[in-house]
Amino acid sequence: MISLKDLVPAAQNNVNAQFIVLDKGKTTAEGQNKACLSLVADETAAVHFQLWGDECDAVEPSDIIRLTNGIFSYSRNNLVLRAGKRGKIEKVGEFNMVFVETPNMSEIRWVPDTIDSKKYVKESVLSPYSRIFPPNN
Fold first, then answer.
1. Is there a domain that residue 86 lies in?
2. For labelling alongside 10, which of 83, 105, 108, 131 has CA 20 to 30 A away?
3. 18 in any annotated domain
4. pLDDT exceeds 70 at position 12
5. How many C-beta atoms lie closer than 10 Å to residue 11's C-beta?
6. What GO cellular component entries does it have (predicted)?
7. Looking at the predicted structure, is the pLDDT value of residue 41 above 90?
8. How many structural domains is the chain composed of?
């Protein structure tokens, strides 16, 4: 299992992680499929998690999800974690999980490494928390 704080875009196409769903956006139509964005977190960081099709109806805030063979990459200019075609998600519990909301790994600007263009490095933090799901103050 990887900690969310250790995610790096494009370099990881087999992410195995466990996290809690903190918030979920409204479901939209993406061609023939449904899609919705959610905010998930573990004890190290938060990230935006893309849900597709039946996942949109099956996953709710407070669900604890285990992701197997997921992908952390750009989708429509947004950096998201998702199951993809090869991955799968499984609900493994509810409510009881330690988590943090910062840093949000989707709110970091990543750039290609100058030494190895296949790798990405952190350039700057766009926002310390999710701009899509801002914290309640």
1. yes
2. 131
3. yes
4. no
5. 14
6. chromosome; SOSS complex
7. yes
8. 1
Q: How far apart are CA 40 and CA 53, in angstroms?
A: 18
**Cα→Cα distances 38→19, 112, 114, Å:** 12, 26, 32
Give the closest residue to 9 by CA, choosing from 81, 87, 65.
Answer: 81
CB 113 within 8 A of CB 137: no
CATH of the domain at 16: 2.40.50.140
Beta-carbon neighbour count of residue 114 at 10 Å? 8
Residue 66 within a domain: yes
| pTM reported for the whole predicted model | 0.83
Q: Which domain holds residue 42?
A: 4-125
Cis peptide before 103 (omega within 30 of 0): yes
Instruction: State the DSSP code for 77.
Output: T
The tokens describing 125, both together, are 């933090």
Nearest to 3 by CA among 105, 136, 111: 105
In-domain check, residue 76:
yes
